[in-house]
Amino acid sequence: MKYLSRIWLCCVxxxxxxxxxxxxxxxxxxxxxxxxxxxxxxxxxxxxxxNSQQYHLEGSGTNVWAKHDEFHYVWKKxxxxxxxxxxxxxxxxxxxxxxxxxxMVRSSLDTDSKHASAVVHGNGLTSxxxxxxxxxxxxxxxxxxxxxxxxxLERKDGVYTMxxxxxGETFVSEKLDSLELGDEVYVGLFICSHNPTVSEQANFxxxxxxxxxxKALVPYHDYLGSAIEILDIREQNxxxxxQIPQSLQAPNxxxxxxxxxxxxDGALYNFDLASGIPKVINTGIxxxxxxxxxxxFDGTMLTISSGNGANGASLGxxxxxxxxxxxxxxxxxxxxxxxxSPDGKYIxxxxxxxxxxxxxxxxxxxxxxxRLTNTPGLDDGPEYSPDGKYIYFxxxxxxxxxxxxxxxxxxxxxxxxxxxxxxxxxxxxPDGKWIVYITFLKDEVAPGDxxxxxxxYLRLMPxxxxxxxxxxxxxxxxxxxxxxxxxPDSKHLAFVSNSGLLFxxxxxxx
Length: 510
Description:
Elements: H1 2-16, E1 21-24, E2 33-37, E3 45-49, E4 54-59, E5 64-65, E6 68-69, E7 71-79, E8 82-90, E9 100-106, E10 115-121, E11 126-131, E12 139-142, E13 150-156, E14 159-165, E15 172-176, E16 184-192, E17 200-210, E18 225-232, E19 237-244, E20 249-253, E21 259-264, E22 267-272, E23 277-281, E24 289-295, E25 301-306, E26 315-320, E27 327-328, E28 335-340, E29 346-353, E30 356-363, E31 370-371, E32 379-384, E33 390-395, E34 402-407, E35 414-415, E36 421-428, E37 434-441, E38 454-462, E39 469-476, E40 492-499
Antiparallel strand pairs: 1-2, 2-7, 3-4, 4-17, 5-6, 7-16, 8-13, 8-17, 9-10, 9-16, 10-11, 11-12, 13-14, 14-15, 18-19, 18-40, 20-21, 21-22, 22-23, 24-25, 25-26, 26-27, 28-29, 29-30, 30-31, 32-33, 33-34, 34-35, 36-37, 37-38, 38-39
């Protein structure tokens, strides 16, 4: 009798809509599980493609609104601050204009749970939706931007920030405070058909759950985990190929396209793309290497920067790409090496001389250095164009850090970017057509700084200058693309992103 009573009580609760999550406990990619929330008519699903690292969601449900929700959810339990980010597209035109997808943070899997949701509807409506109390009425903050296809939802110190963009554009944001969901929450992707009789489908790429740096992290002493990602420029789909719980930085792509060279803990590594195995490169006396290292145009040599100078100042060296004894070429430091001339005769670098950072060039075999910029303020990141006619660099001379170009002799210094961001490290594609650079937000980072662990964009513009397009949205900064990171085919880019949370679905190193 007691057993039948318990069954009857559960049926009453389910029919009332108080708790009705159909959970599947098996992991889906980086997520712990998936659930149908509420009394959906059609069972939903979430699948993960390890080759593309993309997700496909299908689900039904009446709505995510009012006092209870019905939808399909793929989720992970997490504590503390986080950044959730994805690109998405609906699978087809669909049936209901108010079908919706996005990121959701929930206190529980109950149908009436408190939540914060970054939502895009089938008709383009883009909004931050939230329920402040269990069983409470859903509220909403609408964006003027509609039809977003890049969605980010961040929690920092109890404040939720939804940021959205049309693919290729920078984010616009809405903030929400005074919402208490608890420290441990469910975070994940959801889909709702807004029509209980049908199911809708959507695809998600560049899905990331980032654990950002805490306030207690000491820069250049404490580090988050690092992931090497390879971005398909045309598709703007990025795949993680390697990750470690420590810091690795600045992947160079070798001329044969078979390897990446990066730095870690003062050493340089050759990462074989076929095997996924990194091997230390012997650099002789230059054993305190930082993330300023560049491969010569013919693919045979490296110029590297190592803290072997007085008081640990960085000096410039050259070494065969396969390893060997390093040869010092800059007489003093700090000197940070950034680019070879196509004929191999010169190397350009950022040097601090008498308290002023400027662009210099020096014969690759050693010799007198020549100062190419002399404007007060930091000039950094110099790199030759493949035809040898120009040197691209970044300078703070306008008040913000911007991208410039000059002729190889230092003449005709011309500003190429003119925006309200701080733009660093221009890298020219091997075919000479494009520049990729990293962008920091001016309200997060001072113009003359490029620190770790910030919200950054990777942006693309024509080599002669012109409108820029965002090709990657990520959490990174120092070490993300300090060095030339283009693949030889000019169609792919390697970079480093950061997070305190690593996922076993991607390759993890030691």
